[in-house]
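Entry 14. Ran structure prediction on the chain below.
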Amino acid sequence: MTTTTAVPCRDAVRRSYLLCPPTYFAVEYAINPWMDPSGPVDTGAALRQWQTLRDTLRELGHQVETLPPRPRLPDMVFAANGASVVDGRVLVARFRHPERAPEAAAHRTWFRRAGYRPMAAQLPNEGQGDFLPVGGRVLAGSGPRTSAAAHREAEAALGRRVVSLRLTDPRYYHLDTALAVLSEDQVMYYPAAFTPESNRTLHALFPRAILATDQDAAVLGLNAISDGRHVLLTEAAHGLAARLHAEGFVPIGVRLPELLKAGGGPKCCALELHQAPRERP
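Output, structure tokens:
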């Protein structure tokens, strides 16, 4: 995949992200269909791939903060799962699986030290893995990780209307593996990952959305980061890259094959710090 100059109709918005280096990354357990604890993992390669993602975000003009990794928490690299941040409000995740539960405390500590007032979720949710702000609302996934009841809790905590979407395929265990927000009025998603009712909801909200093929979804092509113009996605998602270019976006291919062994891609690694409107640069 190559980066090509897009039609000059899309504007990038400078954003802030929280990333956590994969210092202790490993696949030590299986909590999604992508994970195989018997397979080899190269932590050094994972760190180099992560550094390329971080450096690319910085080169695009975005601010990148760092969450210190903690031993015995191999999935902390997937920082997007640790909290939801909307207009400066923070709802810290309550992880479904005990293997990841201690990550919430690390996120809560970071946000407090950074000057936020984080709220602790009482119901299972996994942060921006399942809560994606777009167009004045929050798209919320329910399925293997986040409960439908947690959507109402998030609506109250984050101060935005929540639109519930039901995930049906265990391979797409978080909303951000089946849907990516591209801009305030555009998304891309994989219809087969959702119930018929959720597909009707998405079509009504985004009638011109980019629809992913089976092939692009299967390489986690939808686990992407967009600043409204540039879209960072796995370089193996060739079909999505072509569609993005045709829609005026600039696709940028990235390689995270080590992290894919745990079912993670670019968006899993980047928790966007959605600031209050008055605070945006």
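The chain has one domain: 16-279. Will compare against last week's run tomorrow.
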